[in-house]
UniProtKB/TrEMBL annotation, chain A:
<dbReference type="InterPro" id="IPR037171">
    <property type="entry name" value="NagB/RpiA_transferase-like"/>
</dbReference>
<dbReference type="GO" id="GO:0008410">
    <property type="term" value="F:CoA-transferase activity"/>
</dbReference>
<protein>
    <submittedName>
        <fullName>CoA transferase subunit A</fullName>
    </submittedName>
</protein>
<dbReference type="InterPro" id="IPR004165">
    <property type="entry name" value="CoA_trans_fam_I"/>
</dbReference>
<keyword id="KW-0808">Transferase</keyword>
<dbReference type="Pfam" id="PF01144">
    <property type="entry name" value="CoA_trans"/>
</dbReference>
Length: 291, 271
């Protein structure tokens, strides 16, 4: 079995108006090469579901996002994502703003085929006020009411992992795999980019096998994109490129996204992008963050 | 004996008391001062506390803040990635201390967006993050580096991210007492929500601060009892522990101009 595809082929399988989940967390292990490929594409009217970082900012700035289902958008050391902020303050986005845990429950409900999962989370807050579609239900066992967190069904999930084989066995050896497994399980199709393509006997190692968080049957296609998470981190290969994010943030104030995009994305291949940064070796030399 | 200490160190010590009687819970302090506060409590009064490395591992001893030497050994206890954090949150064994942008008279807080139009906010911030879940699941405390009326707002928060003691928002079948908001540590005082009907109550004043100043800088009425004490000064032992866990003195950069813990003279700065 061979599921290898190029980033262009993967993005060509996406359609306008789709609901797309993006793995990673803030500035960590985002499938940024695939995001750049979407920025270069004609795709539009997307509903994006994620624990957001520059993926959200770039897609908003490129006019790709109709609706955002999210709990936060942040670059961590730059707390507020500049392009997301701009899009919100211009009143451009439809939102479903929910708690981080509610987002997880929505993905789990979709993964498990449940219409909803009951939770207390959101009660007493504006999460219910600003999402009038969120229903509250009575408990059949006591007198309390519960939020019925609906399934967040994804047409596609995009994630970046450190190692994968051509059958779609994917390894995340970073300290945290975040919610990537739930994004994949909640999606009809999952597109995975990987830093290193390995032969299947790589997973003979119990340690490597222990770091595989979903079954290959859930992986639709694999793309070999070394450094594909840049400027976000991908342990064990590279840390967060804070310097690049400072430049990105500065572009938001001077020149806007078109300045950033013209410099790094528009009309450029991933290889040309990396050459602007000093090549893959320079990306791999970015140290991991100490918290 | 007079030991010199900074306002940041005073706030760390005051904030650490929030965790002292928690027993075996996950203490999460977001930001340098709350994190050092949890660290201090775990190192002194409450060794049973649990903390993470702020990434994915639960620690038996807190990590120092900032760069660490190559031979540093992190005292891992178990994996505690984000999905497991939620398992912990919902099992209620946690106490989080965060710094919201707005706090209202009900103890509701906001880190999402500012302005009256939610669809087109004046200032977009982070989003609700984990506040809805934290606030209804376990104990929460607040850290406020600059006490003023923009933080302690006169009306309800622009976006209510966390459940508080607002009777009108109380979910069906719930009691207000099920909400557990603990301490509020600011640059001028310590407060809690133990006034009448869970009103914000003044607990102690930092050295050199008056009751009037606190009232003036808070956008809603607070409960003040007679003879409000002064916030306890850090002990030498506490200062040594703080220095051990913050060897690069990152705490000195948390408050503007790193003011001393004891004010030279009472200066009232209007918000």
């Amino acid at each position: 079995m061979n599921k290898l595809k190029t980033a262009t082929e993967m993005v060509a399988e996406l359609r306008d108006g789709m609901t797309i989940g993006i793995g990673g967390w803030g500035p960590r292990r985002k499938p940024m090469a695939l995001i750049r490929e979407i920025v270069r594409s004609d795709l539009k009217d997307l509903t994006i579901v994620c624990y957001g970082g520059a993926d959200v900012g770039m897609l908003c700035a490129a006019g790709k996002v109709k609706k955002l289902i999210f709990a936060f958008v942040s670059l961590d050391f730059i707390p507020l994502e500049p392009f997301f902020r701009k899009a919100r303050e211009q009143g451009e986005l439809e939102l479903m703003e929910i708690d981080e845990g509610m987002l997880l429950l929505g993905l789990r409900a979709a993964a498990w085929g449940c219409p909803f999962i009951p939770t207390q989370v959101g009660l007493g807050t504006d999460v219910l006020k600003h999402n009038p579609d969120l229903k509250v239900v009575d408990s059949p066992y006591d007198d309390k009411e519960w939020v019925a967190m609906p399934a967040i069904k994804l047409d596609a999930a995009l994630v970046h992992v450190d190692h994968a084989d051509e059958r779609g066995v994917c390894q995340i050896s970073a300290p945290d795999h975040h919610m990537d497994d739930w994004f994949v399980r909640a999606a009809k199709k999952s597109y995975v980019s990987c830093d290193e393509l390995v032969t299947s006997d790589h997973f003979n190692s119990p340690e490597a096998a222990r770091q595989v968080f979903w079954e290959r049957s859930l992986t639709t296609a694999v793309c070999h994109l070394p450094g594909g998470a840049h400027p976000t981190s991908c342990a064990p290969f590279n840390g967060i490129d804070n310097k690049h994010f400072l430049h990105y943030n500065k572009c938001a104030k001077e020149g806007g996204f078109s300045a950033y995009s013209d410099e790094f994305i528009n009309g450029k291949t991933e290889q040309e992008y990396q050459e602007l940064l000093g090549g893959l070796a320079a990306i791999r030399a970015i140290p991991q963050t100490t918290y | 004996m007079t030991t010199q200490y900074s306002l940041a160190e005073l706030m760390i010590c005051a904030a650490s008391t929030a965790f002292d009687n928690d027993g075996e819970v996950l203490a999460t302090g977001i930001g340098v001062i709350p994190r050092l506060a949890a660290t201090l409590s775990m190192s002194t009064k409450n060794p049973d506390l649990m903390m993470t490395d702020s990434e994915a591992y639960l620690l038996s001893e807190p990590n120092p803040i900032g760069p660490r030497s190559d031979d540093f050994v992190q005292r891992n206890e178990t994996w505690m990635g984000f999905s497991r954090i939620f398992d912990n949150v919902w099992s209620r064994k946690r106490h989080a201390m965060i710094g919201p942008t707005q706090i209202d008279q009900f103890g509701q807080s906001n880190i999402s967006a500012l302005g009256s139009d939610y669809d087109k906010p004046k200032i977009q911030m982070l989003g609700v993050r984990g506040l809805p879940g934290n606030s209804i699941s376990h104990a929460n405390s607040f850290f406020v580096p600059s006490h003023n009326k923009r933080v302690f707002v006169a009306n309800e928060c622009d976006v209510v991210c966390s459940i508080g003691y607002n009777p009108e928002r109380l979910p069906k079948g719930y009691q207000l007492d099920e909400v557990d908001i603990r301490l509020v540590i600011t640059d001028i005082c310590v407060m809690d929500w133990q006034g009448p009907n869970h009103q914000l109550r003044l607990v102690s004043l930092h050295p050199g601060v008056s009751v009037d100043e606190v009232i003036e800088k808070t956008g809603f009425a607070i409960h003040v009892e007679d003879n409000t004490p002064t916030t306890a000064a850090p002990t030498d032992e506490q200062l040594a522990i703080i220095a051990k866990f913050d060897p690069h003195n990152i705490r000195a950069k948390q408050l503007k101009d790193n003011p001393p813990g004891v004010r030279a003279a009472a200066v009232t700065e209007d918000s």
